[in-house]
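Please fill in the sequence for the structure shown.

STRUCTURE ENCODING:
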């Protein structure tokens, strides 16, 4: 059967700047369908919300699934599912019907699927009950339910206990979900499916994806386990891998801050088997927004299984209210050779900035509203012993707007003023040195640059 399911998920849908999230890679593999005959119940949603394109795409996907199983079991020439495997069809809306028993005729199966019509409510419990009843408890065939649905349960008893009953009987459950007009409860799909859910549940908002989801599942069901698995993961440069948890199968190695390799010698060659890798990534960029976690991910194995891991995304909320308008100067590195009494270095050209002490000022702007820039000015004076003030500098700057959801205190740091020593007004100190005490006074001016008010003259 090969790789019968796979997934890549993130445990958080949103994080803060520099926040962390866990990424899970999961695989499930099973032996060859020819040497491991399989009975498959296709359980198909035909409720009213499936009307139109969703039902049309479902039929294409289910027909493709049937064709791939027939080809893999050697039955294409005869029009039959071969090698002891079978497929049965259950469809459901307000109630479920067994449209075919477990049969081998490709024509009958496809005719049944193509004849489905949409209408009614959604009864998942009855669908699971009819699917369980398809299987012969005495059969040694592997038993699989492939449940497709596009909505939440709207009638009938809770379906989860019935799905649990199926799993207790050794039936493996896969769920394909289409996010329909009424939405879908992914947590419910996870509760119905076999573990790990990351490889047994696939959800899409786009009906056109259904054919590919059914095709991928059928292709992987037909292959013979997987050996010499190599997965190379590179995360988006806005993230870094901070840790890798012990893997359930194989060996995971971190190659650098943004990449890892997961290698598995064999998976699912004797019986259905799953493997999972969890690793932690941390956001390291300064910008927020919706970001893909992947930069790239590749899969290979000796059997040629097709695995296209999804690319989960996360919303990064950067609520940075620290502003440092004047960074420190870039240093120049010098090396003085040994045994030299003197050496000369050219440091380049510099605009005149400081001849004396540097005063660095920090302040907090209170309750700054989102998406509004602030104009900030500081006037610095020096005060002599008679209270007379002498101008020492004026700084005006724009404090960038923040994108937090509510008003925030904004911290502004590193505002630098230069105090040349030759203009000190310190009394009784004839020599101007760094030891002089200097009395200063700062006046701060602040207001919004952006505002909502518009004069009538400005309105067209």
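FILLED IN BY: designer on duty
SEQUENCE:
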């Amino acid at each position: 059967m090969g790789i019968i399911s796979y997934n890549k998920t993130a445990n958080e849908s949103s994080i803060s700047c520099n926040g962390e999230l866990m990424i899970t890679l999961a695989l499930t593999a099973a032996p060859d369908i020819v040497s491991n005959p399989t009975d498959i119940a296709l359980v198909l949603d035909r409720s009213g919300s499936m009307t139109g394109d969703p039902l049309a795409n479902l039929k294409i996907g289910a027909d493709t699934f049937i064709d791939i199983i027939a080809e893999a079991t050697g039955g294409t020439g005869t029009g039959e599912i071969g090698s002891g495997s079978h497929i049965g069809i259950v469809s459901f809306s307000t109630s479920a019907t067994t449209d075919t028993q477990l049969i081998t005729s490709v024509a009958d199966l496809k005719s049944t699927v193509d004849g489905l019509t949409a209408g009614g409510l959604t009864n998942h419990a009855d669908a699971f009950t009819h699917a369980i009843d398809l299987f012969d408890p005495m059969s040694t065939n592997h038993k699989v339910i492939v449940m497709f649905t596009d909505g939440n349960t709207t009638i009938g008893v809770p379906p989860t206990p019935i799905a649990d009953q199926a799993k207790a009987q050794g039936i493996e459950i896969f769920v394909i979900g289409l996010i329909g007009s009424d939405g879908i409860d992914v947590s419910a799909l996870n509760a119905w499916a076999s573990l790990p859910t990351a490889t047994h549940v696939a959800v899409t908002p786009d009906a056109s994806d259904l054919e590919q989801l059914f095709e991928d599942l059928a292709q992987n069901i037909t292959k013979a386990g997987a050996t010499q698995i190599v997965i190379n993961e590179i995360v988006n440069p806005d993230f870094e891998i901070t840790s890798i948890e012990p893997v359930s199968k194989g060996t995971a190695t971190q190659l650098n801050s943004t990449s890892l390799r997961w290698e598995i010698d064999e998976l699912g060659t004797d019986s259905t088997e799953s493997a999972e890798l969890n690793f932690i990534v941390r956001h390291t960029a300064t910008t927020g927004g919706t970001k893909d976690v992947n930069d790239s991910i590749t899969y290979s194995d000796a059997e040629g299984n097709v695995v296209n891991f999804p690319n989960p995304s996360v919303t990064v909320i950067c609520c940075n209210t620290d502003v440092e308008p004047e960074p420190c100067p870039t240093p120049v590195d010098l090396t003085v050779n040994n045994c030299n009494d003197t050496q000369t270095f050219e440091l380049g050209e510099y605009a005149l900035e400081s001849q004396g002490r540097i005063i660095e000022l920090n302040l907090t702007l209170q309750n700054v509203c989102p998406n509004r820039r602030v104009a900030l000015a500081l006037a610095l004076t020096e005060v002599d012993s008679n209270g007379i003030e002498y101008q020492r500098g004026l700084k005006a700057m724009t404090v960038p707007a923040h994108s937090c959801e509510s008003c925030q205190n904004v911290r502004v740091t590193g505002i630098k003023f230069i105090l040349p020593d030759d203009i000190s007004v310190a009394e009784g100190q004839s020599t101007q040195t760094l030891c002089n005490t200097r009395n200063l006074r700062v006046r701060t001016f602040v207001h919004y640059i952006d505002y909502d008010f518009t004069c009538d003259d400005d309105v067209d």
